[in-house]
Write a structure and sequence with these properties.
CATH topology of the largest domain: Aminopeptidase
Radius of gyration: 24 Å
Structural class: alpha+beta
Helix content: 25-40%
Bound molecules: zinc ion
CATH superfamily of the largest domain: Zn-dependent exopeptidases
Largest sheet: 6 strands, antiparallel
Order of helices and strands: HEEEEEEEEEEEHEHEHEEHEHEHH
Number of domains: 2
CATH class of the largest domain: Alpha Beta
């Protein structure tokens, strides 16, 4: 296609990427906390948690270059212009209207951007990234204000990323006394009940069955007797799941699920583990939650919580229900569709179980 066509096409085109996060009160201070345009063309942002952002693109005209801008809730105190370098003419921070903040990236007139490939990604509740361009290294000197990674959560997660890439040979699993413990693993849903349906049609029932089978194998290797409530795609009511566990008088019961958010919000990701009551259940939940977070860097910690789910309420032994991520969340879904990540999650759950058994068992 001719260059002319593209120019014409883009002239009046606004790219509008909207993330359905909660709207912050209009009159509060700017939700933009820090930003950084890196030499690799990636713009990183840190905002207040759960900010709603809107991003736009406008093709350059005769007298100005391409423009990309993002509007944030909350009012900017001091509008300013930061001089650019390389392909960037300048970056402006302003308040287009009362109660708003706008960050404009203005490119030099000869820029040649591909906005149709742009994706504004939410990394976690307060971090965002978008790749604006690719250029040879060092054609842009990094521009920015503030620390885009300033968050305790993130520091923990960054550490996890490093650890994983360095010594991901496999997670070391602790040894426990063999042939002493029995564990019931309960893959949620099954058969005609797919559970949550995620991005790209990812089915909870399948994902959790795969993870559960891996957990079973890992535990079996450590000399733990494992009983699965289901081994294939069958529909199984909740009470038989409980009966299996109570009948064999298992030491613990672990139900494995994946989440879906209301309205299938892609910005909602995270892991959580529920227990019903008692310190043992709580301890087991804590051990598992800690491990699954380690293999899910960037995905929010939704915590260890009390829940009244049938299967953990009616089982007689310490019981937990693990939610290994949101199939409707962009970050979690992309991982959970891959077997390498399911393997990691399975290791993490197994490690949590083994640590619990060696302490409380
Ligand atoms: Zn479920």
């Amino acid at each position: 296609m001719s260059k002319f066509f593209f120019n014409k096409l883009f002239r009046y085109l606004s790219i509008f990427l909207l993330f359905n996060l909660d709207i912050s009160p209009a009159r509060s201070s700017s939700a933009l906390a820090a930003w950084s345009l890196n030499s690799n063309g990636v713009l990183e942002l840190r905002t207040k948690s759960n900010s709603k952002l809107k991003a736009y693109f406008q093709k350059g005209g005769n007298t100005y270059g391409d423009r990309f801008w993002i509007d944030f809730p909350g009012e900017l105190k001091n509008p300013r212009t930061i001089k650019g370098n390389g392909p960037i003419k300048e970056i402006r921070l302003g308040k287009p209207i009362k109660g708003k903040t706008r960050l404009v990236v203005e490119f030099s007139a000869d820029s040649n951007l591909k906005p149709l490939n742009w994706r504004l990604e939410g990394i976690d509740q307060n971090r965002w990234r978008i790749k604006l361009f690719s250029l040879p290294r060092n054609s842009l000197k990094k521009i920015g204000e503030g620390l885009v990674t300033k968050s305790t959560n993130l520091n923990v997660n960054k550490k996890a990323i490093k650890t994983r890439s360095r010594n991901y040979g496999f997670m070391q699993l602790p040894d426990i006394e063999r042939n002493k413990f029995s564990v019931v693993i309960d893959p949620g849903h099954g058969g005609p009940d797919p559970g949550a349906i995620g991005i790209g049609g990812l089915r909870e029932a399948e994902v959790v069955l795969d993870v559960s089978k891996r957990v079973k194998n890992l535990l079996s290797e450590k000399g733990v007797y494992v009983r699965m409530t289901r081994n294939n795609e069958v529909d199984l009511d909740l009470s038989p799941r409980v009966l299996i566990a109570n009948r064999i008088d298992a030491d613990i019961f672990v139900s494995i699920h994946a989440n879906a958010s209301k309205g299938k919000r892609r910005d909602i990701n995270g892991l959580e583990t529920f227990y019903y009551s008692g310190w043992r259940g709580r301890l087991l939940a804590k051990k598992i939650q800690k491990q699954i977070l380690k293999v899910s860097p960037g995905s929010p910690d939704r915590g260890v919580r009390q829940g009244r789910f049938f299967v953990i309420k009616n089982t007689k032994m310490p019981a937990v229900l693990v939610e290994i991520g949101f199939l409707t969340g962009k970050l979690d879904a992309r991982r959970l569709e891959k077997s390498i990540h399911r393997k990691r999650i399975a290791y993490a759950i197994t490690k949590g179980i083994l640590e619990y058994l060696s302490k409380a068992g």
